[in-house]
Amino acid sequence: MAGEDLTWLKLGHRGFLQEPSADRAGDQGGRAVHRRTYTPRAVRTSSAIRAAAWGIVAVGVAAPLARRRLRLPPPVVTATAGAAPFALCVAVRRSTARDVATCCLQMWAYVATYEMPNDDPEALRRRVRVGYPVALDKVLGLGELPGVRLQRALAAPGTIRRADAVLVWCHWLWFLVPHGSVAYVLLRRREQFPRAAALTYAVFDLGLIGYWALPTAPPWYAAEQGVIPSPASDHPAMRRMMREHGEAFWKDAWAPLYDVLGGNPLAAMPSLHFATSVMAAHLLSDAGPVAGAVGWTYAATLGFALVYLGEHYVVDLLAGLALTEGVRALAPRAAPVARRLSAGIQALEARAHA
Fold it and tell me: What's the chain's average pLDDT?
C-alpha cells in the first residue's frame, strides 16, 4: 500500500484529496513516510476573497456614518452600504446568525438612503410636495379629508385619551413588526425565510424611489403650512397626536428619541408603515392561520391609526398597498434573476472558504 495511499488536507471542515508526494523521507519497516503538501495559491486566493469581502462590509458600515463629514455623494453611500449584505454572505458561511446580520446590514443601507434627503432640511422643504395628496384625499373623502373627519368625530380637542394612546403605541410598534415577522419565519418556517426576507426588504427598498423622486409631506405638515385650512384659529386642522403623546409620555427624552427614529419627516408617499405591515401579514399567513390573523389585525389597526393620527393620507396607504401587492405579483418573474445572483454569491463563498 506504500505507493498507493492518499493524504487528506483539512482546511476548516472541507477535505481536499491530494496525490501522494514523490519525495520520501525513507522507508521504515515497509511503511512509506511522505512529506505533507498543500496548494499555497488556493490558500492565498481564498484568504484574499475573504479579506476583500470583509473590507466591503467595513466600508458599507462606515460610509453612512461618515457621509456628512466626508461629504460623500448619496449614490456612493447607497452603493457601498448596499454591497455590505452581499459581501457578508461571501465572508461568512451560512448560519442563522449570518441570516440575521445580513438583514441588519440591509436595513442599515435602507436607513442611510431614507435619511439622506433630510441631510439638507432646507433643500428638502423646497422640493417637498404638499398639495397633491390633499387634493386626492378630498376626492376619496367626498370633499373632506378622511383624517380630518376621523379626528373631528373621535378625538377630544387638546387631550390624548386612552384609545388615542393605544393607537400611538400601535404606530410605534411598527418598528418591530416587519423585522419581527421575518424573524418569526426564520425561527418557525426556516424554509420560507429566503422568500420572506426578499419580499419584505424589496418593499422597503422600492419605497425609497418615491421618497427621492417625489418627496411628499404628511397631513400634519400640510396643516402646519396652512394647506389644510383650520376651521378655528386656535386649533390646527390636523393634529399630530403622536407628537402630543410622545412629549407627554417621554418628556425630555422625546426630542432626542424622535431625532434618532424620525430620520426623514417628509417621506409620506408611499406609506411604508402600511406597505410592510401588509407584507408581514401575508408572510405570517403563509406561516400559519393564527400568525396570519395577528398580522392582518395589526395591519388593519395600523392603517386606521396612520390616518386618524395625522401621519398619512389614505392615498399614501393605497400606494403602499399597491407597492406590496406589486412586489408579490412580480416576484415569480424576478426569481430567475435572484437565483442567478444567489448562485454567483454562493460560488464566491465556496472559493472564499476552499
Answer: 89
In three state form, how does the secondary structure of 216-240 look? ECCHHHHHHCCCCCCCCCCCCCCCC
CA distance 92 to 102: 10
d(Cα 59, Cα 228) in Å, to the nearest integer?
44
> What distance in Å separates the CA atoms of residue 67 and residue 289, rounded to the nearest whole number?
44
Domain boundaries, the chain: 7-38, 121-352
- Beta strands per DSSP E along the chain: 7-11, 14-18, 24-28, 31-34
> Phi/psi of residue 263, each to 5°?
65, -70
Average pLDDT over residues 43-58: 93
Q: What gap in Å lies between CA 277 and CA 265, rounded to an integer?
A: 19
pTM, rounded to two decimals:
0.85
Q: How far apart are CA 77 and CA 73, in angstroms?
A: 7
Distance, in Å, from the CA atom of 113 to the CA atom of 83, rounded to the nearest integer, reads 13
| Cα Rg of the chain, angstroms | 27
